Amino acid sequence: MDLPVMPPVKPMLAKAVPAIPPGMHYEAKWDGFRAIVFRDGDELEIASRTTKPLTRYFPELAAGLRRELPGRCVVDGEIVIARGGRLDFDALLERIHPAESRVRTLAGRTPSAFVAFDLLALGDRALLEEPLHRRREALAGALAGAGPPLSLAPATRDEEVARRWYAQFEGAGLDGVVAKSFDLPYRPGERVMVKVKHERTADCVLAGLRHHKSGPVVGSLLLGLYDGGGRLQHVGVCAAFPMRRRQELMEELSPLIPGSIEGHPWEEWAREEAQAEGRMPGAPSRWSGGKDLGWVPLRPERVVEVAYDHMQGDRFRHTARFRRWRPDREPRECTYAQLEEPVGYDLGQVLGTRHAWEP
Fold first, then answer.
1. Is 29 a catalytic residue?
2. Which residue range forms the structural domain that includes residue 104?
3. Which residues are in the ATP-dependent DNA ligase family profile domain (predicted)?
4. Do 169 and 211 share a domain, yes or no?
5. Residue 142, domain CATH
6. How many domains does the structure of the chain reveal?
7. 292 and 176 share a domain?
8. Could you tell me which of 196, 192, 160 has the C-alpha nearest to residue 177?
9. Can you point out the beta strands (E) in the chain?
10. Does the bond joining 131 to the residue before it have cis omega, within 30 degrees of 0?
11. Whole-angstrom Cα distance, residue 225 to residue 315?
12. Which residues contact 257 (CB under 8 A, 6 or more apart)?
């Protein structure tokens, strides 16, 4: 491979802001795997946000990009999978599997697609120092005749349109809006864009904790919600506490540690065979990287209010943020019924065309 911009390249990143800023270039925020694609003729590499290769996990995408991309280019974008007219992040996670046969099966069952939103190189020309508006113009021209599995990300300069996207596109599985300066050069690894994500709150049952990597202080709190059958389901974690607060939380929550896990709603998760059956607080995964995911059960007597952006199935898509304790709430009141559901919005309307890459 011989390109004017060569791997490894870390993608340009965004920092969170509370509101959509005026006077910028706006795009929807896609909920997938960020990736930079390097193509030089038949040679093609799909690199992750951390510059690790993803090509083997998405063979159908690599084949499609060889067909649809210009012969020599470097493109920044998002790998996505759609099911039922909306993005499905869990289907992406399933792809990171060591068995090639499993990857091939999933490639046929839930094919992936690539939504392109920036151009780092085209032909023999590096575009990193070009302003965003020129890179976008070049990207639109380069992809003018492209078809599935490749799409050009919609963009606008109209703040009102961006606000409408923010309100509507969540129903298709997107999770906010990204804003960029018109004159912004491409800055690998730097947080020079901004993102506005949805935030909601939920009252959850505190049912366990994990220790921090530094020692016996709180690393994260394990959250639960009661389903329609009265079973407490694990919905995610909240974390990101200052070290002093981690120590205080450990002292505060120690009286809730039971003498035995017997009778705890998640007692079955202590069994190794049960952990292998699903995503449980202590279950290992291909994403854990050898981390100790053991957990400490707590009597499910406390309610905590957390902020979250959106759900992925029956769980929080990202780590929740601690807001406050709710001593005025009873744990049994913490059900899925309180969660706000976005109005459905078909992904084809986001892209302005029928997304033929969805099975």
1. yes
2. 13-198+346-351
3. 114-231
4. no
5. 3.30.470.30
6. 2
7. no
8. 196
9. 13-16, 25-28, 33-40, 43-48, 72-80, 82-83, 86-87, 113-122, 125-126, 150-152, 155-156, 176-180, 191-197, 200-212, 215-226, 232-238, 296-308, 311-312, 315-316, 321-325
10. no
11. 9
12. 296, 297, 298, 299
Work out the mean pLDDT of the chain and round it to a whole number: 88
Compute the distance between CA of residue 243 and CA of residue 131 in angstroms, rounded to an integer.
41
Do the domain assignments include residue 319? yes
- How is residue 101 annotated by DSSP? H
Tokens of 278: 């699903």
Q: Is the pTM of this model over 0.90?
A: no
Considering the chain, what percentage of its residues have pLDDT values greater than 90? 63
**Residues 300 and 237 placed together within one structural domain of the fold:** yes
Residue-wise pLDDT for 303-324, tens only, equals 999 988 878 888 888 899 998 8
Q: Extract the tokens encoding 142.
A: 């380069």
Q: How many residues does the chain have?
A: 359
Query: Does one domain contain both 224 and 299?
Result: yes
DSSP lists the bridge partners of residue 321 as 307
Query: What percentage of the chain has pLDDT greater than the value 70?
Result: 89
Residue owning tokens 């709190």 = 221
d(CA 77, CA 91): 18
Paired sense of beta strands 315-316 and 311-312, if any:
antiparallel
User: Per-residue pLDDT for 354 more than 50?
Assistant: no
pLDDT at 282: 41
State the catalytic residue, choosing from 10, 15, 29, 180: 29
Closest by Cα among 64, 57, 61, 62 to 101:
57
- The distance between the two most distant Cα atoms of the chain, rounded to a whole number of Å, is 67
> Directed axis angle between helix 59-68 and helix 100-109, to 10°?
60
Scan for tokens 């639109």, then name that residue.
140
Q: Hey, CA dihedral for 197, 117, 127, 62, is it positive or negative?
A: positive
Check: CB of residue 78 under 8 Å from CB of residue 117.
yes
* Segment 32-87, tens digit of pLDDT: 899 999 999 999 999 999 899 999 999 999 999 999 999 999 999 999 998 888 88
